[in-house]
Write a structure and sequence with these properties.
Strand content: over 45%
Shape: elongated
Largest sheet: 3 strands, mixed
CATH class: Alpha Beta
């Protein structure tokens, strides 16, 4: 699994302030029977993530999960 995060910054009183973060998780080559497990884990991980729990009240954090099937030979 890989993750790519993009942040959006705004200027507030002459200071750069991070306002939004969007994270895209990409799971490559997941077996079909594991796709549901990955989706459920993505749905509940934020409540257990220390970074999310520390920041979510100050910064709008969104995530998405992209699942790419295993390459067929």
């Amino acid at each position: 699994m890989t993750a790519v995060a993009h942040g959006e910054v705004e200027v507030e009183a002459g200071v750069l302030v991070l306002r939004r973060i969007h994270v895209v998780f990409v799971l490559k080559g997941a077996a079909e029977e594991k796709v549901d497990v990955a989706s459920r884990a993505h749905d509940v991980f934020k409540i257990q993530c220390p970074v999310y729990r520390s920041l979510y009240q100050a910064i709008d954090i969104t995530t998405e999960l992209k699942i790419e099937p295993a390459a067929r030979l």
